[in-house]
Write a sequence for this structure.
């Protein structure tokens, strides 16, 4: 099984080698004109997205494999982009790059079926407690009721985060709670605009209800775009602990929003 084997020195020497190879493999693409310029301009975005995926998933694919997949998405975005649709190419390219990377990842089994069942059990229990009490249960309470220790629960949260990340294309109801939630715009139907505004409002409320460190991590990561390492330095925690708290926060937020969608909180 391949592992992440990114070679930093090689990348600095020729940062777009892998991406350009994937680009040249797209024979059906007419690599000239403005499309070609867009591809070259946005190749760094491919690397940025791959790094983010690696941070979330630690996937069983090499850095080069994912860059190649992302570049195919970029090439197709440049080929298919229609400026009359009132979208920026940057936004369109991001969606296509990330989608291509996730398509590549879906063929790999990240989470065993028995662990999937434990995640679903934890979600159901947390939803039940939240509906009954109005607040998501603390990690210690959830671990106790599930009959596992806190380390096992943290591992479960990490796997739930992976599950959310690769479930859809990054914009669906099972995708990560944060990071790709744009403001409602007038290209959507009125009812979709209202629902999205309500979702943003409920999400903001749910974030404010997170315990101190979890709330800070979510805001620093998604609003300030700091890395886990930078957040760890600010909060004087280990990077692994920040990652655990981040995964736990996303689990809590998903429970809150699920209850809201079901007509609860």
């Amino acid at each position: 099984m391949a592992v992440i084997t990114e070679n930093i020195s090689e990348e600095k020497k020729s940062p777009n080698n892998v991406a350009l190879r994937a680009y040249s493999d797209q024979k059906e693409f007419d690599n000239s004109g403005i499309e070609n310029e867009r591809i070259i301009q946005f190749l760094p975005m491919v690397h940025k997205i791959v790094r983010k995926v690696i941070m979330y998933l630690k996937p069983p694919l090499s850095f080069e494999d994912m860059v190649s997949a992302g570049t195919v998405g970029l090439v197709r975005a440049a080929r298919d982009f229609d400026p009359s649709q009132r979208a920026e190419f940057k936004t369109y390219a991001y969606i296509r790059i990330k989608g291509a990377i996730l398509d590549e990842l879906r063929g790999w089994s990240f989470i065993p079926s028995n662990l999937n069942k434990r995640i679903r059990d934890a979600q159901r229990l947390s939803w039940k407690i939240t509906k009954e009490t109005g607040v998501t249960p603390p990690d210690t309470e959830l671990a106790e009721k599930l009959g596992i220790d806190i380390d096992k629960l943290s591992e479960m949260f990490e796997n739930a985060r992976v599950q959310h990340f690769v479930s859809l294309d990054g914009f669906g109801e099972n995708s990560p709670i944060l990071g790709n939630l744009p403001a409602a715009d007038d290209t959507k139907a009125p009812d979709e605009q209202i629902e999205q505004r309500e979702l943003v409002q409920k999400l903001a409320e749910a974030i404010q209800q997170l315990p101190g460190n979890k709330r800070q991590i979510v805001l620093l990561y998604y609003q300030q775009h700091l890395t886990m390492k930078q957040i760890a330095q600010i909060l004087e925690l280990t990077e692994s602990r920040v990652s655990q708290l981040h995964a736990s926060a996303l689990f809590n937020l998903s429970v809150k929003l699920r209850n809201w969608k079901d007509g609860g909180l």
